[in-house]
Amino acid sequence: SSDLKNLTTLILTRNFHGEEIPRNLLGLMSLRVLALGNCALQGEIPSWLLSCGKLEVLDLSWNHLNGSIPSWIGRMEYLFYMDFSNNSLSGEIPKSLMQLEGLISSRCNSSDPFAANGIPLYVKRNQSAYGLQYNQVSSFPPSIYLSNNRINGTIAPEIGKLKQLHVLDLSRNNITGTIPESISNMRNLEVLDLSFNDLYGSIPPSLNNLTFLSKFSVAFNHLQGPIPMGVQFQGFPNSSFDGNPGLCGSTQAPKIGRA
């Protein structure tokens, strides 16, 4: 609808009850924030989102969405915050996701990405037992939340291109393969959660380069070998590494003797 062409923020969290996600909602050319979290929405991620060419924040969490993450997501050049967590999404993480311009280049001011556009950002992402609430003045750290879905496949090495990303949460999926060494290039990462997947191999020692990392978990995978030495990893609790019998190191109890 042309009536919505100037709308910049649309927050409908907890407003629907088990309905199909709209398939042909057009005319939201100016939309920068779209939050449809905890609406019990069904169906697939709709292609009309691609017409929201200025979209920066997309929250579809806590719904019943199925199908795969569409490859066209990577063409949303301003998108820097996406939360698809707690759905029934399947398939692999599309490599096009590693082409999100808003997570590659530093042109977005991550401390207040809307300030330059004159948009008062009056919403904040708050995790709660009832999903998300948007009710405080704050800004959004560049983030990808895909936790608690049915995503499979591997983590592509191209993930390392997302150098502006602060939060990467892929926990509670069916992701396999190894942890890409290229994650160590994501120097702004503060949260990296890969727990409850089917990852194998070792933890790349180069992850010690992630000096801003304050939350890290690879718990309940099939990882082996030593936990990387270094100040960064010594600060993480045992629970970050639980459920990987083949891991050994000073933060892991009980320790596994050296071969």
UniProtKB/TrEMBL annotation:
Family matches, as InterPro entries: Leu-rich_rpt (IPR001611), Leu-rich_rpt_typical-subtyp (IPR003591), LRR_dom_sf (IPR032675), RLP23-like (IPR046956)
GO molecular function terms attached to this record: guanylate cyclase activity
Localisation per UniProt entry: Cell membrane
GO cellular component: plasma membrane
Annotated EC: 4.6.1.2
Protein name in UniProt: Guanylate cyclase
Pfam families per record: LRR_1, LRR_8
Membrane topology label: Single-pass type I membrane protein
Upper taxonomic lineage: Eukaryota, Viridiplantae, Streptophyta, Embryophyta, Tracheophyta
Protein family according to the UniProt entry: Belongs to the RLP family.
Domain of life of the organism encoding this protein: Eukaryota
Keywords attached to this entry: Cell membrane, Glycoprotein, Leucine-rich repeat, Lyase, Membrane, Repeat, Signal, Transmembrane, Transmembrane helix
